[in-house]
Amino acid sequence: MLATSRWVRWAAPILVVVLAAALRLWNLGTPHSLVFDETFYVKDAWTLFINGYESTWPNDADALFAGGQTGVFTTDPSFVVHPPLGKWLIALGMAATGPASSWGWRISTALIGILAVVLLMLIARRLFGSLTLATIAGFLFAIDGHAIVMSRVALLDNSLMFFALLGFGAILLDRPWHARRLGAWLDQRRAAGLNPHWAPPSGGVRG
């Protein structure tokens, strides 16, 4: 009975994740062309994976790349304006499926978008202490049009969003850890007969 109750409680968050996955993965390879800034990030990701650095392409490379001619890049470095982590993540999907697959260009971004829904629900659960509110937050994120679009194109925005959200989650996890450490320190000062309200001249720093 307890196991059934637990399953019922977690059924809604699981369904939210399934919904997020369906909206982000369905027909992911369409269109089979480099759209918007994919022209930079997909090609940069592939040369980063092959050459170890972002390399230049001929002027008509987008059509050639979409047509399966993915090796027409040069060994000359290209002008780089973004950190490489997001492009490495895009490259992993391309390496797994082949660079000619538009599904492969975008799968890493889509998976990051799905994981972000899970992460948001975990953060909301810790913030509000409510599985219901966490599920609502995840549902709203799962169906958000902008979040869906950014999870279906091989851009860097989703990676940036995910790691920023992960950092916020880390701060939430740090709060009770800090409170325990601070409490133990105050107990030690009281046990030693010292003023537990003493703070260093800086006023005390948390972080």
Structure write-up:
Helix 5 (102-128) packs antiparallel against helix 6. Helices cover 67% and strands 0% of the residues. The protein has helices at residues 2-25, 38-51, 61-66, 85-97, 102-128, 131-143, 145-150, 157-191. The chain has one domain. The mean pLDDT is 88.
Keyword list:
mainly alpha, single chain
Mean pLDDT: 88
**Count of alpha and pi helical runs:** 8
Give the terminus-to-terminus CA distance.
Answer: 43 Å
**How would you describe the shape?**
flat
Set out the fold topology:
Blueprint: H1 2-25, H2 38-51, H3 61-66, H4 85-97, H5 102-128, H6 131-143, H7 145-150, H8 157-191
Helix pairs in contact: 1-5, 1-6, 2-4, 4-5, 5-6, 5-8
Produce a short descriptive summary:
With 207 residues, this protein is mostly helical. Helices cover 67% and strands 0% of the residues.
